[in-house]
């Protein structure tokens, strides 16, 4: 690609997009070292500072990783969540295939710790593993009042839970979540089917409809080396009176 220095599109951005394109078409594969800053500078006819800016943004986006003394390498793609989306939808948008393994699906008395939030006698407990291209990425445990649900079975729960809720007339408007890092122990190694410890992040979320109705509580654990949750934080300006 020739960089158009007369274009209104910044030079570093043109370079960044071409590097991304080369990765997408397989010129540089996952785990492979891309050209050095010097080589990129000479090949594209741009300054080293421009190259550094393009690579810096690609590192921030999780597309590349720098290894001191070795070079810059292509990262394995991560599942990224930015907005309220089902896991199935997120993975599909990334161009990959997902599958779900149901560990538990049962009707239980509402756990005491949830009774204030979910004041119902019984809830469904749904425990699922979310798998992407053969690797367990997440473990999700959902509690939803039985009164809110129509017919469900294990086969239906292998798909998008958000889409299933739509058949009951519910759409999730927003989620209130708390996140924390956790240490992988032997039980998690078994759950995620790994031999070595990998970083994990735990999410506890309350999922609500547009009218503020708490629909279900979800406790999820994700492999944070495979999954990225991007959070946008806004300051709400108070009304001037």
Automatic annotation (TrEMBL):
<protein>
    <submittedName>
        <fullName>GntR family transcriptional regulator</fullName>
    </submittedName>
</protein>
<dbReference type="InterPro" id="IPR011663">
    <property type="entry name" value="UTRA"/>
</dbReference>
<dbReference type="Pfam" id="PF00392">
    <property type="entry name" value="GntR"/>
</dbReference>
<dbReference type="InterPro" id="IPR028978">
    <property type="entry name" value="Chorismate_lyase_/UTRA_dom_sf"/>
</dbReference>
<dbReference type="Pfam" id="PF07702">
    <property type="entry name" value="UTRA"/>
</dbReference>
<keyword id="KW-0804">Transcription</keyword>
<dbReference type="InterPro" id="IPR036390">
    <property type="entry name" value="WH_DNA-bd_sf"/>
</dbReference>
<keyword id="KW-0805">Transcription regulation</keyword>
<dbReference type="InterPro" id="IPR036388">
    <property type="entry name" value="WH-like_DNA-bd_sf"/>
</dbReference>
<dbReference type="InterPro" id="IPR000524">
    <property type="entry name" value="Tscrpt_reg_HTH_GntR"/>
</dbReference>
<dbReference type="InterPro" id="IPR050679">
    <property type="entry name" value="Bact_HTH_transcr_reg"/>
</dbReference>
<keyword id="KW-0238">DNA-binding</keyword>
<feature type="domain" description="HTH gntR-type">
    <location>
        <begin position="9"/>
        <end position="77"/>
    </location>
</feature>
């Amino acid at each position: 690609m020739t960089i158009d220095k007369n274009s209104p599109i910044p030079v570093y951005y043109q370079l960044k997009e071409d590097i991304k394109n080369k990765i997408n078409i397989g010129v540089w594969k996952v785990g492979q070292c891309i050209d050095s800053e010097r080589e990129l500078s000479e090949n594209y006819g741009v300054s080293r500072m421009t190259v550094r800016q393009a690579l810096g943004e690609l590192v921030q986006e999780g597309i590349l990783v720098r290894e001191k003394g070795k070079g810059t390498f292509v990262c394995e793609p991560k599942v990224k969540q930015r907005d309220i989306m089902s896991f199935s939808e997120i993975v599909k948008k990334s161009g990959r295939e997902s599958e779900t393994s149901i560990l538990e699906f049962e009707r239980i008395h509402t756990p005491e710790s949830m009774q204030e939030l979910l004041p119902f006698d019984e809830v469904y407990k749904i425990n699922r593993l979310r798998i992407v291209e053969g690797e367990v990425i997440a473990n999700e445990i959902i509690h939803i009042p039985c009164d809110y649900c129509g017919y469900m079975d294990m086969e239906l729960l292998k798909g998008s839970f958000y889409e299933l809720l739509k058949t009951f007339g519910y759409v999730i408007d927003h989620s209130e979540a708390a996140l924390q890092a956790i240490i992988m122990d032997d039980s998690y190694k078994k759950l995620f089917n790994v031999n070595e410890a990998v970083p994990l992040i735990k999410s506890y979320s309350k999922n609500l409809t547009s009218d503020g109705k708490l629909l279900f509580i979800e406790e999820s654990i994700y492999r944070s080396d495979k999954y990225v949750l991007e959070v946008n934080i806004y300051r709400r300006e108070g009304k001037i009176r």
